[in-house]
Design a protein that fits this description.
single chain, alpha+beta, Alpha-Beta Plaits, 3 domains, five-stranded antiparallel beta sheet, 15 strands, 34% strand, globular
Length: 314
């Protein structure tokens, strides 16, 4: 009586940069779990990242501490996917399942409703920052609850906000906008139904499961456009064009193209018949088509955390 086990609220994938480090990562997580019962993990695999673990944490700080300890104490080089939360999915047949990985979300035609965790947040701040805090919270789908003046220049604000909006850079933005003066506390309130969709990212026509995210439908188009633009900057140019697409189901909502590096095949053609130049260009074009069919695109590590740098568009 009186004891309630710690329940993970934030989930992320931990993958070793070097595949052979997988057993070492498993052993390190098992050792950390011995004195941290709130840490949970289970094996998972990704087409883009290989074998790793899906880990549950109490919050973002807990996740950063675990990652830091793994890298410093166990000398592991890790890649961490963007954090997610646990959703309750009601299927069309009435069955309910819990999903904490966007890649495991059922197809849209099998989903009746999606419920997301919502938090009650409490913010203490100097009164001069009320406007900028209200702007931040409402842009993250927050709902105003109450405002109390504790002192003449100090205010207590309470809101209700989805946890999925809270875990991505909210605290950093709050500190930045209030010059470090605001403080934040939050507790779980309830699960509530929301109009959420899965945003998939396709690179060169292939879906990259580690870049999939669950977001609100109203933000999906803006987020998809921002993410494709960011990935265009991060993915190196190939010898063939690389299309980057953001999709909701079968609908493409945003697209960017990484332009191909081009060799000047006409460099040695001084004058002469135009038909010879056209043949050389056509031959180059056909070669690039064949290369695109068999070529693979290496996605840099920074791309998998690109979602965390899109706070201005959330």
């Amino acid at each position: 009586p009186g004891y309630r086990p710690a329940k993970p609220m934030v989930f992320a994938g931990l993958y070793p940069v070097d595949g052979p480090d997988y057993p070492a990562l498993r052993d390190a997580l098992e050792r950390l779990q011995l004195n941290d019962a709130s840490l949970i993990f289970e094996p998972e695999s990704s087409l883009a990242l290989g074998f790793g673990f899906r880990c549950g944490f109490l919050g973002l700080l807990h996740m950063e501490v675990i990652q830091e300890r793994l890298e410093r104490e166990y000398r592991l080089n890790l890649l961490t996917t963007a954090p997610s939360v646990e959703y309750i999915i009601t299927r069309t047949n009435g069955e309910q399942v819990k999903v904490d990985n966007p890649a495991d979300l059922p197809p849209p035609n099998e989903i009746e409703a999606i419920e997301e965790p919502v938090m009650d947040i409490s913010i203490f701040t100097p009164s001069r920052y009320i406007g900028t805090i209200m702007d931040l919270v409402t842009s993250r789908r927050g709902i105003f609850n109450e405002m109390k003046y504790i002192e003449e220049e100090r205010v207590h604000l309470t809101y209700r906000i989805p946890l999925g909006e809270l875990i991505i850079d909210f605290y950093d933005q709050l500190k930045s906008r209030t010059q470090g003066y605001a403080s934040l506390d939050y507790t779980f309130a309830v699960y509530q139904t929301a109009d959420l969709v899965k945003l998939d990212i396709l690179v060169n026509g292939d879906p990259v499961d580690a870049l999939s995210i669950i977001t609100h439908r109203d933000k999906a188009y803006t987020l998809g456009r921002s993410l494709t633009e960011r990935l265009k900057e991060l993915i190196p140019r190939q010898l063939f064009e690389v299309p980057i697409q953001a999709t909701i189901g079968s609908k493409v909502v945003a697209r960017e193209t990484v332009r191909a590096m081009r060799k000047n095949v006409l460099a040695k053609c001084y004058g002469g018949d135009i038909t010879r130049k056209m043949k050389l260009l056509q031959k180059q074009k056909e070669g690039k088509k064949r290369m695109k069919m068999v070529g693979s695109v290496e996605i840099p590590q920074e791309a998998f955390m690109a979602i965390l740098s899109l706070e201005d568009n959330r």
